[in-house]
Fold this protein.
Amino acid sequence: MSANRRTVRVKVNASSKSESVRELAEGYYQVRTRAPAERGRANKRVLELLAAELGCPVGALTIVSGATKPLKIIAIGL
């Protein structure tokens, strides 16, 4: 992992009634999305919401592990 890259842990709640991003602890976020957890829709929306929260482009975020699970590790390459 390069020096300009860090990771965060994300707990995802797909198909929620509302969308939000909350930092529960340093480097650990809860993301609620209306998108269903099917065909990558929730993952795509999670990256969009998290990018907006962190103030970085969506392309700077990559799901490192947990693509099919509610707990994900996302790398931020700035």
Observations:
- The helical segments are 41-54.
- The mean pLDDT is 93.
